[in-house]
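FIELD: query
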Amino acid sequence: MLFERPAQERACRLGGVNESPNCPRCGYDLSGHVASWERSCPIEGRCSECGLAFAWSDVFAEFLVGPRWSFEHAPEDSPPGAMVGRAIATMLMALRPARMWQSLRLEHEVRVRRLLVLGLAQIALLHGILFVLVWGTPRVFALWSGPFWPFTPGAVLRLALFPYDGVIVIACGAGNVTGLPVWVPLAFGGVSASMPLSMLLLPVTMRRIRVRRVHLLRGFVLGLPMVPLALGVMLATGLFIACEQWLPGTAVWRWTLAGVVLVAMAVLLVWYGYWWRQYLRYYIRMPQPTLTAVVLLVLCGTFVFVSSFVISVWS
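FIELD: result
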């Protein structure tokens, strides 16, 4: 489809004209296509390098306004409170992957500095949560499980610096205590967090779509909220195990307990696959997103769990 007015006119209304248009996905210079136009130009185009279909108005726009929830696209003059609000909104939006990846597109500018700030903030927040859980749960459950485990100042400092080899204590009644090693939820969360980076292990696919690394970085940072989600599921499962004494001591109930645990883990993995399918389908616009998400999930799950098991045994 053609239209008589140049595409630059529509781009001006979107925030300026990009005089050197590039493919949003692979970065290929599209100036050669533009040079072939004479009196009119197509509304839509396709990159000859990676095959991405796009609207020329989006390519010509020097700046597209990002979604209102996006921390990455908050105005530069936003006050600190507004930036914190955007960061929280961005992390909560991760629970709605289809909407998130439909509203945040390849055409939106990737602001690497903002992504790094958001990623480091999420990692620091998770680090603090793990320290509080490892250090505090023995004291919280001391009323049920007996005297709390003593921690010397040196041990507290060590936990503050590296809580990842600790154990989260969960109790449900006197003498019924279970422990959740920190590496278990981190391993489950690591499966999701490592999936965009694992695309680098698929050289044929990467050569076909030629996606720029900054788009993988965006997927990694916006997928980090899956790690505390895994932690929450694991804590709920651990509490259910700790409350086993309240269940009838029959084989049926014990099989039911094991089934609940397995179902919780399976649902978590299925959610990861669904989450990254939306990323591949709506954001990367990759053909066969379901198959690719399953392959990535298997690759990441195998690597993360094997390496986590080896590290736990070695330590």
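FIELD: remark
Residues 1-16 have pLDDT under 50 and may be disordered.
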